[in-house]
Amino acid sequence: DGGITQSPKYLFRKEGQNVTLSCEQNLNHDAMYWYRQDPGQGLRLIYYSQIVNDFQKGDIAEGYSVSREKKESFPLTVTSAQKNPTAFYLCASSIGGWTYGYTFGSGTRLTVV
Amino acid sequence: GENVEQHPSTLSVQEGDSAVIKCTYSDSASNYFPWYKQELGKGPQLIIDIRSNVGEKKDQRIAVTLNKTAKHFSLHITETQPEDSAVYFCAASINGGSQGNLIFGKGTKLSVKP
User: Fold this and answer.
1) In sequence order, which residues have a C-beta less than 8 Å from that of residue B42 and are 6 or more positions away?
2) Does the beta-carbon distance from A41 to B101 stay under 8 Å?
3) Count of alpha carbons within 13 angstroms of residue A57, beta-carbon side
4) What gap in Å lies between CA B21 and CA B8, rounded to an integer?
5) I need a surface site. Which of B30, B49, B67, B85 has the fewest CB within 10 A?
6) Which residue of chain B is at minimal alpha-carbon distance from A109?
7) CA of A101: which chain B residue's CA is closest?
């Protein structure tokens, strides 16, 4: 079955460390997205990519970095510059274009210890 | 840019009652409006969507209505059940811009009391 997989489900980070969240899809979707969700809050866009080797900053890109070397993969690195990284991170993908919905992964919960 | 407002932020209903969640959007060019359901600790799942050439769409107990003139759309859930308890997000499509292709509302937490 096609889908979008995020790993790990839970991740713990020490202060000052960089960590990378994985997002892989086998839906043959062109576009991929990263959102951050804080408790009781909505979805805030971190980065998105409409095509391989290209990506754009979203509303809250500071302290995060991404790469899109393969169509299937869109990893997110949370750097030490992100001062409050504890949150639920969601990856999504879509066919592309502006009249299609997103398919979301199951999320990664990142906690700073 | 596009803005999507969603109301109410929380909604509590008795099992068997109906629930209605409303969203308004600002960009008259938006033409695709999906609704997502997010259960605790999980990713949002698409439950129903509507395109601008249709005024209403139904899928069993769920329906969505769209008023393009007024730029608002609503989710209707009839005969609610405890398993309908979740956070619901509406979204509107945009063409280009700096926010991807969908702009999301801030969500509605629906609680269905048995």
Assistant:
1) A106, A107
2) no
3) 7
4) 7
5) B67
6) B41
7) B34
